[in-house]
């Protein structure tokens, strides 16, 4: 088994942050990558997931709540020449262990209340619902903030856009 860091470009990273998927299929595969290899997936913000190579895909094993900057991601994305950085970087077992140790401890699963509300002017309820889904499809997670709160503690909620806390102040 080998260990890898897969640095995704900003567009692919944003896509992976926006939707819940079971795997990511990188555009290319480095020489030597084999089924069962372990992969840390990273974007410009840092490592956001750990996975395992299965066929042409990397199946997620763990996704982080917030990306974690590591020594390896700073080397890939930390310089001015890193604009649009992407690709496979092989890690030795010691570097892999250091990277995994640097990640935050996994959180315990809990229930969340996630809502998206928007005013829609329509003739009737059915038209309002159709327009709602049309807006959702056209705007998507890059433009529609959602409100997230721990279930039963709705007053502790915050607004999120693409999985990152987002200010809801209209003047911001």
Helices, strands, pairings?
Elements: E1 3-7, H1 10-18, E2 23-24, E3 38-43, E4 46-54, E5 57-68, H2 71-77, E6 87-91, H3 93-102, E7 112-115, H4 125-139, E8 146-150, E9 158-161, E10 164-165
Parallel strand pairs: 1-3
Antiparallel strand pairs: 1-6, 2-5, 3-4, 4-5, 7-8, 8-9, 9-10
Could you characterize the architecture of this molecule?
- With 172 residues, the chain is α+β, with helices and mostly antiparallel strands.
- Helices cover 24% and strands 31% of the residues.
- The chain has helices spanning 10-18, 71-77, 93-102, 125-139; strands at residues 3-7, 23-24, 38-43, 46-54, 57-68, 87-91, 112-115, 146-150, 158-161, 164-165.
- The protein is elongated and about 60 Å long.
- The termini are far apart.
- The mean pLDDT is 85.
Low-pLDDT parts are none
The helix tally amounts to 4
Distance between the termini: 48 Å
Mean pLDDT: 85
- Give, in spatial order, the strands making up the sheet with the most strands: 2-5-4-3-1-6
What is the rounded Rg? 19 Å
Q: Biggest β-sheet, characterized?
A: 6 strands, mixed
Range of strand content: 25-35%
User: What string, H for helix and E for strand, traces the elements in order?
Assistant: EHEEEEHEHEHEEE
The helical percent reads 10-25%
Secondary-structure content class:
alpha+beta
Specify the overall morphology: elongated
């Amino acid at each position: 088994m080998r260990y890898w860091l897969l640095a995704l470009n900003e567009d692919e990273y944003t896509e992976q942050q926006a939707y819940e998927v079971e795997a990511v299929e990188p555009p290319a595969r480095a020489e030597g990558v084999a089924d069962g290899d372990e992969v840390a997936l990273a974007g410009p913000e840092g490592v956001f997931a750990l996975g395992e190579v299965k066929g042409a895909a990397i199946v997620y094993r763990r996704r982080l709540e917030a990306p974690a900057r590591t020594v390896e991601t700073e080397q890939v994305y930390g310089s001015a020449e890193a604009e649009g950085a992407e690709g496979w970087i092989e890690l030795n077992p010691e570097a892999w262990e250091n990277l995994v140790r640097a990640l935050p401890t996994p959180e315990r699963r809990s229930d969340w209340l996630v809502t998206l509300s928007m005013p829609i002017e329509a003739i009737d309820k059915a038209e309002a619902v159709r327009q709602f889904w049309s807006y959702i499809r056209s705007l998507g997670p890059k433009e529609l903030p959602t409100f997230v709160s721990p279930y039963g503690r709705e007053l502790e909620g915050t607004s999120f856009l693409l999985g990152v806390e987002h200010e809801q102040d209209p003047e911001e």
